Amino acid sequence: MAVEQAERPVCVKHGPMALRASGTKEQAFCGDWYLCEHTEFGRTCGNTILLPSLELLAQLDNQRANLAKGSKR
């Protein structure tokens, strides 16, 4: 689901972020993680952002709908 370079998230301090490889199936299900890899004075920025997958968004919508039904009882 990785997005094109022009659409990638941007760190507010350092610019374009790098796509971080998913380590597990669960991480891949969640979507694409992006990481700011800018390093200065031996420290990495480390800002991250998640662009959720369509599957995760659908699951969250389903949970929201089920919770709304339960609260109407």
Written overview of the protein:
With 73 residues, the chain is an alpha+beta fold. It has one domain (5-71). The chain is built from two helices and seven strands, in the order βββαββββα. It has helices at residues 25-30, 54-71; strands at 10-11, 15-16, 18-20, 31-35, 39-40, 43-44, 48-52. It has a three-stranded antiparallel sheet with strand order 3-4-7. A hairpin with a 2-residue loop joins strand 5 (39-40) and strand 6. 7% of the residues are buried. The model has no long low-confidence stretch (mean pLDDT 87).
Distance between the termini: 39 Å
| Biggest beta sheet attributes | 3 strands, antiparallel
In round numbers, the mean pLDDT is: 87
Measured as a percent range, the helix fraction is 25-40%
Rg for CA atoms? 16 Å
Please, how many domains?
1
Q: What structural class is derived from the secondary structure elements? A: alpha+beta
Count helical runs: 2
Low-confidence stretches: none
Widest sheet: strand order? Answer: 3-4-7
**Which descriptor suits the 3D outline?**
elongated
Write down how many β-strands occur, each being a DSSP E stretch of 2 or more residues: 7
Would you list the SSEs in sequence order as H and E?
EEEHEEEEH
| Strand content bin | 25-35%
Outline the fold blueprint.
Layout: E1 10-11, E2 15-16, E3 18-20, H1 25-30, E4 31-35, E5 39-40, E6 43-44, E7 48-52, H2 54-71
Antiparallel strand pairs: 1-2, 3-4, 4-7, 5-6
Summarize the structure.
It is built from two helices and seven strands, in the order βββαββββα. By secondary structure, it is of the alpha+beta class. The N and C termini lie far apart (about 40 Å).
